[in-house]
Amino acid sequence: SPPQGPKMLNMTEKGKAGKIQLPREIFWSLSSRTVRVVVTVLNIQRLGMFKEVNQMGQVLDDTVVGITVGETSISGLRNPVQLAFAHEQLPNGVTPQCVFWDPSKGMAGGWSSSGCVTQPGDKGTVCSCNHLTFFTLLLNPALDRSTAEALMAVATAGCGVAMAFSIFTITLCIFLRCRFRTEETLRTNLGLHVNLLGSLLLLNLAFLLNSGLSGGTQPRTCKVLGGFTHYCLLCCFTWTLLEGCHLYLLFVKVLGTYIHHYLAKLCLVGWGFPVLVVGVAGAIGSYGEYSLQTVNHQVIAHLCWITSEHLLVHYITNCGYFGLIFLFNVAIFGVVTQKSCCLQGTGVVQGDRKAWKVALGAVGLFCLLGATWALAFLTHGTSSAPMLYLFTILNSLQGIFIFIWLVFLYYPKTKETTGSLSHIIRHDKTITVSQD
Question: What are the TM regions of this chain, as residue ranges (predicted)?
Fold first, then answer.
């Protein structure tokens, strides 16, 4: 009856019992009217419903529970609706989150936790929400505290080492540019490397500032730091793309590729394009505090980054942008490798070069084109701890890889200068001209 309200509703499926408890205040405004309380239990896998774009978590038992009282929309409850989802003990690396389906989220709707509180337990999770709609329990991949702290320590130490090697390598490149004053191709190559290493240096600096300052910064300062970190990351990606484009011009379009103020135009793109992206993202309020949490919802670290409400910005500007860049650079790497093998087969490159030197050159070139960043696509959120360790370690060593590659490429022995990139390009030009 309306004055008392329903005491409790039960549902049982496959031997698991869940409970739903509605507060009496829902029925106070109904006076003496009789209303229908409808509880709908849906298997979304069979129905093909409630599919969110780029969803990381898994719906518990593929089950969504919808609750309606009468024909009115109910929200803003002082006493929340309680849903108890029964489940066995969740595996390590998974955290439950109470969510509801929000049709206004994204292009086709998505899961939202606004107005819901999650209370995890050993044999179930209780969701307390201040409105009625379709609810479920989302199982999100999450780090345990020890793994997360170890990754943060590795990343911090790696960033410090990477900054030191980036500064040293930039100094080496500047020295080599002064040494090879008459070699325009080499000077352009080294200029590109200096800019890429400069973007890596700024990105590592931004991460160290982020991990050290974000916990006690003001909201406005955190937005600025988040935008700066995003800008440095986009600069790093863009210069990786420009390295690939430059290799394409050198090895594929060998003839007739002279561009007036070539390096200056590349700098305009490499440092200017990310400004536009960050400006648009900042205009819609994408930057702020982002919390890194454990399975038990303990905050490990506060980062100034793209907020959880604007993850679409992250997927488009970071994941999507780098995905296209990496596919392009993989194709360029294949072309460069094929060209080098052909030149070595024709005797242009000296045959006494050892196999490990050739392999080292290929690995360095692959790192230069962003291979270490591609490991981020294999982490599957935060559930793949070994892949996260691999990504963190190798990405922090990217500056070291580039340094070794540059030393190998530009500091051969006096009589082994034919192994340099510029010599291969010059011989490639000669062969192309003779064939024409």
Answer: 150-178, 190-208, 228-251, 263-284, 315-337, 358-376, 388-411
Could you tell me which residues come within 8 angstroms of residue 302 by beta carbon, excluding any fewer than 6 positions away? 214, 215, 289, 290, 291, 292
Instruction: Say yes or no: 194 and 310 in one domain.
Output: yes
Assigned domain for 24 exists: yes
Token code pair at residue 158:
């790696």
Domain around 97: 17-141
In this structure, of 43-52, 63-72, 343-352, 422-431, the range with the lowest mean pLDDT score is 422-431
Q: pLDDT category, 272, cuts 50, 70, 90?
A: very high
Q: Is 5 domain-assigned?
A: no
| Domain stop point among 74, 107, 141 | 141
Return d(Cα 432, Cα 436) in angstroms, integer.
6
The gap from C-alpha 219 to its chain's centroid, in whole angstroms, comes to: 23
Q: What per-residue confidence (pLDDT) applies to 226?
A: 92
pLDDT at 361: 64
Q: Are residues 135 and 163 in the same domain?
A: no
Q: Are residues 122 and 201 in the same domain?
A: no
pTM of the full structure:
0.68
Summarised one tens digit per residue, pLDDT across range 4-19 is: 444 444 444 444 567 8
Q: Alpha-carbon distance 212 to 367, whole Å? A: 28
Q: How far apart are CA 53 and CA 68, in angstroms?
A: 26
Euclidean distance between CA atoms 275 and 316, whole angstroms: 16
Query: How many domains would you assign to the chain?
Result: 2
